[in-house]
Amino acid sequence: MKKDQDVEESIEFSHFEGDYYEWLEELSALHREMGRSAKKVIRQYPQEWADGLERLGFIWVEDELPESLGSQPMIPENGNQEYLMAYFEGHFGLDERVVNTYCEEVHTDRVNVSFIAKYFKLAHPKLKQLILLGLAQSPTDRDFLLDLALFHEYQQILGELIEYYQTACLQEQDLRKFEWLARDFEMMTEPDGFQALDALYDLLGKQPAKQHIIESLMSELQEGEQETPAFPMMLS
User: Which of 32, 105, 148, 231 is the most exposed place for a label (fewest CB within 10 A)?
Assistant: First the structure.
């Protein structure tokens, strides 16, 4: 199900004015609102949940990739994009230069979403390899973790996503950065029914400062769930 495809494309396939985090967080926040709204409807109307979702504004569609996305030729705008396209097309293998070029082009304050979104939507295996190499080099890197979470939207890799987020949360020593990782972890896995904060709390038995942060996040989440969900906007 989704809502308003024109709005979706205006968000995903354009130059996004702002931080890379803001783009991914906007997508994830919309997904989370969708999940909360849907869950509340299903709980309240277990026999008529489909009608309830339609009343919220959802429509039923086939979940498939538009033909134009895979066939439309991509025109690089700069040398970095040209180099990354050559990598994705198999002209050379993955190495540190590819990772650095990706960071310069994608992890930026003005990401060209139309360029990279194609490879996410195709769940391109070379994109996943690139993300995992980035995480191998820097396991707590929030950019690459968010990339992996976005990749999960198009190819189910929940087990790997959980493993990498747990590793990052265990290794991150800066408590402020840890809080952001924990928030991301919960947000990115909640639609799949995974209780990330509960899992983290148990995992962090010997790190009381981090456990205190998790307790605060749990309280914040419980307060948020008591609020009436807004009408969602789906992004496929």
Answer: 231
